[in-house]
Design goal:
25% of the residues lie in helices and 34% in strands. By secondary structure, it is an alpha/beta fold. The protein is elongated.
Length: 143
């Protein structure tokens, strides 16, 4: 099995609604996202001869997925009062709402699916919310 890995980072703020601890407050992270793609075989002809995928394409696609979250406030839908949310947006701040709690675990699954939807055979997505704490997501099953 051939496995390629690339990574990209973004900075954003979030909070965990309903959490009993300091992460209930708005705070920021330098998130690091690693994507691993896999293949049993290498491409056997053309420009990609001897490759799994073009690293340039893989890096570009991950960067696009990650950059849209850079320097934004990331929240779970419905966890902020509508009036507060509207005021923040009217003041020009970027707020991105997700249908899930913005945890490293949920982001790992999100980036896994995002890259899989682009056609990559994703083995694993790992998201670091600090340099030493990460969550990984991979799907099991027959390929």
């Amino acid at each position: 099995m051939y496995i390629l890995k690339t990574e990209h980072s973004f900075d954003s703020a979030h909070f965990l609604a309903g959490y009993a601890g300091k992460c209930a407050n708005i705070h920021g992270h330098r998130w690091r996202v690693e994507i691993e793609v896999q293949s049993e075989e290498l491409v056997a002809s053309g420009q990609l001869d001897g490759m799994v995928v073009d690293f340039g394409d893989l890096k570009k696609d991950l960067k696009a997925a990650v950059d849209r979250l850079d320097h934004a406030l990331i929240i779970e839908q419905g966890t902020m009062r509508e009036q507060t949310l509207q005021c923040i947006k009217e003041d020009g701040f970027t707020v991105i709402e997700f249908p899930f709690r913005p945890t490293a675990e949920n982001f790992a699954a999100h980036f896994y699916r995002t890259m899989a939807d682009l056609g990559y055979d994703v083995k694993r997505a790992t998201v670091y919310e600090t340099p030493t704490n990460s969550a990984a997501y991979e799907e099991s099953g027959v390929r």
